[in-house]
Amino acid sequence: MTVPERVLVVDDDPKIVSMMRRGLIFAGYEVASAASPESALEQTLGELPDVVILDVMLPGLDGLEVCRRMRAAEPRLPILLLTARDRVPDRVAGLDAGADDYLVKPFAFDELLARIRALLRRSGGEQVETFSYSDLSLDPDTHEVQRGDRAIDLTLTEYQLLELFLRHPRQVLARDRIHDAVWGHDFYLESNVIDVHIKRLREKLEAGGEPRLIQTIRGVGYSLRPASD
Q1: pLDDT for res 3
Q2: What is the DSSP letter of 140?
């Protein structure tokens, strides 16, 4: 018998929690909920969920800080932010806090389910091949990423991006190809979301002073290759 994926809903509005609980259970998920930042962090550390749905507006610590702490504790935990704020800077702030996806209220429940499925697909694929290029290596079995002797902690989206580049070294990957491979073709992204994630990935890969390997190909996309090429 297949064990259902566990979704943690973090929201202090009992009506929203009740609505999402009913819909998610009907869709076949196991659902836990938390109304406070403290409860959310405690539950995440106690029994790791398969995905977190996290409201930005929470009492005490806001959702962005909760997201940062969850991400620090569990780098590969899929996190979906819910918010009424739909400006680009708000979306960027959510991604910078470590969220893998961002959904603006009010939303269609079918879209929420589709985004959850996409996050679970991205976090659950089994791989056996180890990928490497230059001094970069990625082990899909353990999700360990290294540059030389330095271990690197990546979020789920950053990990998926790096795996995509390592699967296609030296190739120029257009933005639409990156979008379809990492987010899925049925998801709309703001124009700079890919750039934000690439920027954060580069910062982690180059944190030890290493030369840049993910190059911008102007007008097209990105490529994993030395800067001199």
Answers
A1: 62
A2: T
pLDDT of residue 94: 84
Q: Based on the number of CB atoms within 10 Å of its own CB, is 227 exposed (0-12), middle (13-18) or buried (19 or more)?
A: exposed
Q: 121 is written with which tokens?
A: 């697909």
pTM of whole model > 0.70? Answer: no
The b/e string for 78-105 (b: 16+ C-beta within 10 A; e otherwise) is bbbbbbeeeeeebbbbbbebbbbbbbee
Residue recorded with tokens 């406070």:
36
Could you say which residues of the chain have pLDDT below 50? 1, 125-128
Has domain 131-224 been given CATH number 1.10.10.10?
yes
Q: How far apart are CA 35 and CA 114, in angstroms?
A: 24
Write out the CATH class of domain 6-124. alpha beta
